[in-house]
Amino acid sequence: MTVSEITLDLTEREIEILELLNEGLKNKEIATRTHLTLYTVKWYLKQIYSKLYVSNRTQAASKARELGLFQEDAKRISREMAAIRTNLPESVMPFFGREGDIEQVKDWLLGDMRLVTLHGIGGMGKTRLALEVGHRLLPAFTDGVYFISLTASDINPLHLLADTLTLNASGTDVTAQVATYLHNKHMLLIFDNFEHLLPYATEISHLLEQTRNLRIIVTSREILNLSHEVVIPLQGLTSEDSDAAYQLYIQRARSSIGNYTPDSAESAYIHKICKLVGGMPLAIEMVAGWVSVMSAAETYERVKRNIDLLTSDEHDRPQRHQSIRAIFDYSLESLPYDLKQAVIKLGIFHYEGFTLKDAEAVADLSPLALRQLTQAALLQRDTDGRFKFHPLIRQYITALLRADETLYSETKDAHGAHYFKFSEYLVDQLNAPNFSLRLIDEFRAGGGNLLLAWRHALRQGYYDWLLSATEVGYITEMAGNWDLSLKMYYDTLAKTPESETLLRGRLLALISVFEGRLYYMERLETSARESWELLKDSDYVWDARAAMQYLALLKAIMGAGDEAFAILDKVDAKSIPSHLQPNAYVDSLNRIARPLALMYTHQLEQARPLLERAKVPTWSESVIYLPECYYLLGMEDKAHQSLVRLYTAALDNRNHRLAQMIVLYLTLLEHDDADIPNALTHNLRELINIGFKYQFIVRNGFYFGVMSMMRGLQREAFYSWYGAMRLLDDLHEISLKYQYANQIAGHLVSLMPEKAFALYDAIANASDAPERLKEQARNHLLNLPPVSEDSTGDVNKVLLASIH
Predict the structure, then answer these.
(1) Looking at the DSSP assignment, which residues form a beta bridge with residue 354?
(2) Partner residues linked to 215 by β-bridges
(3) Is residue 197 very low, low, confident or very high in pLDDT (cuts 50, 70, 90)?
């Protein structure tokens, strides 16, 4: 492989990392310098090793020096590019982000793929991306890279190509003449804005069939539907490109205010704006143009209400790109009337999207129609099979739907009826003998739409539907949506008439479960007892029993053991008709409530035989308590065996909380104190590698730490918190880290005030903590007696020091 080929294959980011590697920087230092996560740096190093045919850092740096990649290479490539024939326009503005897309297009074109379509709605940056790829590939195409704009044309694109190449093509068979000229040429062509010339798509196909080394990039709002074609559906700059979106905003803002430098508050709103507009490059450029008129906060609030702020008066911008609304109008008006109306109905769905089945039921859209919409770039289908609008398109479509009161009302009813059936399905599965936690994934996928349907039913007074759907709350509890679910149930209870006693009783029962998870002791006592009185003689007695069992368990944790067992005796004494069977969640709680209360009151020997006989299903989080009982009794071998056996089941069932608790206990059992911090961090990272979301892992670590601390398991609590904080460090989620650290300190105030002070002090003095969180910590310090020793230090060090 030649120097030219290696240099071409390496990305700018990879060369940057190689240079830092050559300076002797370690992975973490490279991550800090490049603002990448440690994981991303390691991924890049793997790519570099592969491309340079080496196996380690030393070899990579040596090979790079040998090839001269750090010295004259850039100048040499510039000289090579200057000698290559091209008509590519030079970029006036810098290009931001899209490295993943660029690498994919390059890999395809330098491989076996000969036609790549950059597909997306107007404003997504298709042309800019195509030009960037063209410039980067100049050294690879010895016969040139040529750009053919089709914007103002209605003729065969190959006529324009012939003109671009200054061929003397004449007659009717231009394709054959162009193909003859290009037969052996090693050339890249870029056809820009092909969507209005789709009848000529076959000309592109014929051209490829009659040439050997030709490669083509097409940009289009619609795919060409050719057998040769591979498509990159282009959406906005994603979270991976969030820094690129921010830099694009800053660059465009400086066109209005040359020295524009946002402070931290302004920067936070710029990030929110970029997310609000879904990372659409054109929208970011337009919204940045208002920097001379209003702050980023004001801009954000206005764009959130109306997309009409997204306009441009720049004279060199094409007419079709003068406003975001004009782009969307063009796409929608090109559809047949019936399909246009169906698309507008899709505005009723939650931003999380919908399935083919959902679209058929609510908007009467066929698979063929959905394919047409995806090909027109109005919709995108995720890998999980869900269709979604770009955020700005959804805002535009939803506004059109709300403007038609009749259509809006009819569509809301259709949406509500469809998700009423979905709630029935969820409840049926919850009560099925073969219940599986896979149901939670289904709930999460449709949960946003279910919430919209719930609110619609509440506004319309459909209390029978709400009564039957209330049981879905157990699934939201298992999914960990405690705060949101509690708010929704509180709101529903407040708007439910007193006459609806069964609904109110069920709502209170589920409210008790959420309050129990969040340790709202006083509220839980009221909710659970009221639910029991309303439901104890009804068909929903199992719900009330679950509420009372949660109350008993909280009493046990708080040290009120006598009250806890009195409550359990009371509900156990209630005779329940045999035809009333508990659902899977309630049944699991019923099996574990008494032995768990014994554990919480430190009666481990009495709890052990009850736990061994309980036969808790392996999908249930409660299955952890038997190995935990062994662990607390000092039966380490037995605890380890049980945990190892359960770990596979936890992964198979996608049970985040169970898997994380198992990981914590296994780490504590398998490692010495000195090795536990790094081993725990490694094991938690493995959960992410398996596919668990880090947000859930961090939240679970926080929750398990709180629960352990309340039970007097201080070592387990601090390690659980420490693991969550280290994970956030590694992922560079700094704001979230200090947000959780403040909450941890808050839980320690009454239990261990000196540790709370040390933690608040570490936050207040942290150089990387957001100012608002530092201010919160400083305010809390004013209400705490200072500790005698020097408590200033890193949050993680404070947590580790608290363990020993």
Answers:
(1) 387
(2) 188
(3) very high
pLDDT tens per residue, range 557-600: 999 999 999 999 999 999 999 899 999 999 999 999 999 999 99
Q: What is the Cα–Cα distance from 196 to 162, expressed in whole angstroms?
A: 20
Sign of CA dihedral 748, 750, 751, 757: positive
User: Residue 188 corresponds to which amino acid?
Assistant: L
pLDDT digits (tens, 9 = 90+) for 661-704: 999 999 999 999 999 999 999 999 888 888 888 888 998 999 99
262 phi and psi angles, rounded to 5 deg: -70, 145
Residue type, 629: C
Q: Give pLDDT tens digits for 711-722.
A: 999 999 999 999
3-state DSSP assignment of residue 229:
strand
698-716 per-residue burial string, b: 16 or more CB within 10 A, e: under 16: bbbbbbbbbbbbbbebbeb
Q: Which of 129, 145, 133 is nearest to 83 (CA)?
A: 145
State both tokens at 230.
């591979």
How far is Cα 780 from Cα 757, in angstroms, rounded to an integer? 8
Which position has the token pair 């994981």? Answer: 39
> Mean pLDDT across the stretch 88-94?
80
Element (H, E) at 190: strand 188-192
Alpha-carbon gap, residue 427 to 540, rounded angstroms: 14
Q: Cα–Cα distance between 250 and 240 in angstroms, integer?
A: 18
Q: Across the strands, what pairs with 229? A: 115
Place of tokens 């596919």: 691
CA neighbor of 193 nearest in space, from 175, 228, 217, 209: 217
115-119 and 145-149: which strand pairing? unpaired
State the number of CA atoms in the 13 A half-sphere of 43 facing the CB: 8
Q: What is the Cα–Cα distance from 542 to 68, expressed in whole angstroms?
A: 74
The encoded tokens of residue 681 equal: 């961090």
Name the DSSP class of 317: S
- SS3 helix, strand, coil % of the chain, rounded to 5? 65, 5, 30
Residue 356: closest CA among 303, 291, 418: 418
pTM of the predicted model, to two decimals? Answer: 0.75
Rounded CA gap, 320 and 234, in Å? Answer: 18
The neighbour count for residue 146, using CB atoms within 10 Å, is: 19
